[in-house]
Amino acid sequence: MARKLPPFAAVRAFEAVARHLNVKVAAEELCLSPSALSHQIRALEAYFDTALFERHGNRLALTLTGRAYAGKMTQLLDAFDESTRAVREAGRRPFRVLSTPGFAARWLVPRLDRLSFGDRLRLRVSDGAPSLDFAANESDLVIQWADEPTPGVVTDPLMSSGRYPVISPELREREQVREPADLARLTLMHDETMDAWGSWFASAGLPAPAFPRGPTFPNCELATTAAERGQGVALAYDAVVQGTLREGRLVRLFDTVVMPFVIYSLAYPEARAEDPMIREFSDWIHGEVEAEGFAPAPRSAGRAGP
After folding, report:
1. Is the pLDDT of residue 53 over 90?
2. What CATH class has 8-89?
3. Which end of the chain is more exposed for a tag (fewer CB within 10 A), N or C?
């Protein structure tokens, strides 16, 4: 069915005047004369056969119909402007990603040479939880912990993983770590974000030792790094430490795993859901995660999507 749309020039003129409630200021913004702008407004009111403004001498006010239409047109024109700039700049602008330190260092950076525009990626890491205030965080996309929804933001679950103990090869040999009960006498690295040692000992059928049995870090990356330096044992996320295990800097201990859950998700503004670079980055990173077998299970029917 063919769209029945009013003249675009008239809509653009109306939106500018509605925003400023001043014909002269709107005319300057659009580089038109006030008389040309007034003509466009009259043409739009004729198209709708209804008044969009109330005129009181030199003062303008929106009618109820005009106010409702103006709000929708401002949103549409903002989205139109954002989409147009995204397409125009896609071939040359940087793509700004904000990530947690552990994901960036152990997972993302080693794979960036496989991203088609990896040379234009600007990667920043956060001190704490990455900010999802896209008006202030200077990012196009955030790789956030877990998948907590945020109003106005698309939350796209990316990676699911279980946890198991890891240790440096040297410490394992020196301490003769052979069975789960041996961990009760070792230093354990704890994680402020989500410490799961109690769950792991329960899954292994063992009573948990008195906690803490070692230092507590603000995130799992620092705990894993400490284990890599031979300072003790950390509970690492399988999906994140695969490369470290392959390189032999850490070894896995035992088969017991804390049950998998979504550990990372992509977040970006709803208004930019169709941005070409966001879509390409999302397709690429999801493909990488799926190839390694760490894609999250589909959301249940009862849970709201992003």
Report:
1. yes
2. mainly alpha
3. N
Q: How far is CA 74 from the centre of its chain?
A: 25
Q: Does the pTM exceed 0.85?
A: no
Q: Cα–Cα distance between 301 and 155 in angstroms, integer?
A: 17
CATH level 3 topology of 161-260: D-Maltodextrin-Binding Protein; domain 2 (3.40.190)
Q: In the chain, where does the domain assigned CATH 3.40.190.10 lie?
A: 95-159+262-291, 161-260
pLDDT tens digits, one per residue of 215-237: 999 888 999 999 999 999 999 99
Identity of residue 121: L
Q: Which candidate, 127, 188, 185, places its Cα nearest to that of 163? A: 188
Beta-sheet pairing, 251-252 with 153-167: antiparallel
- Which residue matches tokens 């070894």? 251
pLDDT of 124 reads 95
Superfamily of domain 95-159+262-291: Periplasmic binding protein-like II (3.40.190.10)
State mean pLDDT over 100-115: 93
Dist. CA 34–CA 19, nearest whole Å:
15
Tokens of 249: 């800097």
